[in-house]
Design goal:
This protein has five helices and five strands. Strand 4, helix 2 and strand 5 (91-100) form a beta-alpha-beta unit. A five-stranded parallel beta sheet has the order 3-2-1-4-5. By secondary structure, it is of the alpha/beta class. The protein is globular, with a radius of gyration of 15 Å. The chain has a single domain, classed as Rossmann fold (3-Layer(aba) Sandwich), CATH 3.40.50.150. The longest helix is centred in the N-terminal third of the chain and has 16 residues, at 2-17. The chain has helices spanning 2-17, 80-90, 106-110, 113-117, 125-134, and strands at 24-27, 37-40, 49-50, 63-69, 91-100.
């Protein structure tokens, strides 16, 4: 069941990016390789670039599209804005950020085992919008 959901989610993400022209960056790529440049902090997933979202090793304004899917909740607490500022820095003017993260709905929050084991966070839409605005996105 989870795999079907994951595949369906990828289809939605890829559909959102259809028609966008230019170089794309996938931050926290793991096994998904839908960016022109795939970045992850984990060397074992064999990304194109090994780096973390808080220090993107790219020149300013070089990507038309950045995928930041299910990564923000794994960042150290209170560093989300710093990561979004890095993304803003590497996005071209009128570039697109596709961001996904667990929604802070009680049903999802309480049933997420990673919340208890790893401190996995869920976000309210208002909270994300506030962070995105602060970062200039």
């Amino acid at each position: 069941m989870k795999k079907k959901f994951f595949i369906g989610r990828l289809r939605v993400i890829l559909e959102l990016s259809k028609g966008l022209i230019g170089l794309s960056l996938n931050i926290g790529c793991k096994e998904t390789r839908f960016g022109d440049v795939n970045l992850d902090i984990n060397l074992q997933v064999i990304p194109d670039v090994v780096a973390d979202a808080l220090h993107l090793p790219f020149r300013d304004r070089c990507f038309n599209l950045v995928y930041f899917t299910d990564v923000i909740e794994h960042l150290p607490r209170n560093t989300e804005l710093r990561a979004l500022l890095e993304i803003y820095k590497v996005l071209k003017p009128r570039g697109v950020l596709i961001l996904t993260t667990p929604n802070d709905v009680p049903c999802y929050t309480y049933l997420d085992p990673a919340r208890y084991v790893k401190g996995h966070r869920h976000y309210k839409v208002k909270e994300l919008l506030k962070l995105l605005r602060k970062a200039g996105l």
